[in-house]
Amino acid sequence: MGKLVEDGMKDGTVLATEGCMPSAKGARVRLSNKKVKVTDGPFTESKEVVGGFAILHANSKEEAIELVKGFLQVAGDGECELRQLYDGDPSAA
Fold first, then answer.
1. Is 41 left (phi over 0), alpha (psi -120 to 50) or beta?
2. In this structure, what CATH number is given to the domain that contains residue 66?
3. Would you write out the chain's pLDDT as a tens digit for each of its 93 residues?
């Protein structure tokens, strides 16, 4: 994994990456009907937990998918969600 991230940093396809602490160290903050509710972790009822993130640079959605396929081959079974970051360009939305 370290080599994959290092190579991606060198070639500019990986801009940042971090792992997340266990949900037991976190909290969820929800606003509903002007009321704020804070729930401390762990979130055992969660089916989907974010374990980490990476910010990638890709010229297309297809290129990003190929980068993620390579990551999953190293990381093993799991799932990644791709999301484009808002960059201020109205035509990108």
1. beta
2. 3.30.70.1060
3. 899 999 999 999 999 999 999 889 999 899 999 999 999 988 876 677 788 899 999 999 999 999 999 999 998 888 899 999 987 766 665
Q: How many domains does the chain have?
A: 1
Q: Angle at CA 84, nearest 5°, toward 77 and 21?
A: 50
Q: What is the SS3 string spanning 62-85?
A: HHHHHHHHHHHHHHCCCCCCCCCC
pTM for the full model? Answer: 0.73
Quote the CA–CA distance of 52 and 68 in Å, as a whole number: 13
- Show the domain range for 66: 2-92
Task: Please confirm whether the linkage preceding 90 is cis (ω < 30° from 0).
Answer: no
